[in-house]
Here is the input.
Amino acid sequence: MTPTTAATPRTPYRVRAQSVEACSCAHGCNCQFGGTPNEGICELVMGYEVEEGRFGDVDLAGVRVVVAAKYPGAIHDGHGHVVLFVDERARPEQIDAVATILSGQAGGMPWEALAGTIERFEGPIAAPIDLAISGQRAHIRIPGAVELETTPLRDPVSGAEKEVHITYPKGGFFWNDGNMVTTRTMRVDHQSLRMEWPSKYAATAEINWTNAS
Here is the structure.
């Protein structure tokens, strides 16, 4: 018999967090429906505040992370440039844990799938992250690097705020129920990664990640 080598066991994790995301697409984001970005390119910011979660024995509650990325086409076509920021208040073991998860090394969706689309990955970069998510309103501020603020969509006739959701009854890629909003401000200025997309697609949602089968 030929001896077999046991696979290295992955550290189990579960994370529940509040999220805000914004990108270069029009409201609703055509990637949700046709898979192709409205502008032909995909430039995005995603921010997360962990409400509860563990990576092995590491408690992740309260950790804030922000992902900024640029793709020359649809995400699934690859060649992404991704930068990962982690709140400087996080402990070293928390930073290592979220970097392992978000780089896809720990397995689990969506990050395991996204890892194959990344051509250039920077981080984790420890930085002061001001992040707040409350219903349709959210903001991210990383001094000198990222600024994002969302605001509710408004009825074009009355001007009243309105609430619109995209839901995935069988489970979505990033989230199952997204509250559609828009960007008052969306700007990234980090070395070679620069973008600015006001009045475009944004969404807030609760997310759940795990590598458990």
Observations:
- The first strand starts at residue 13 and ends at 23.
- Residues 1-6 have pLDDT under 50 and may be disordered.
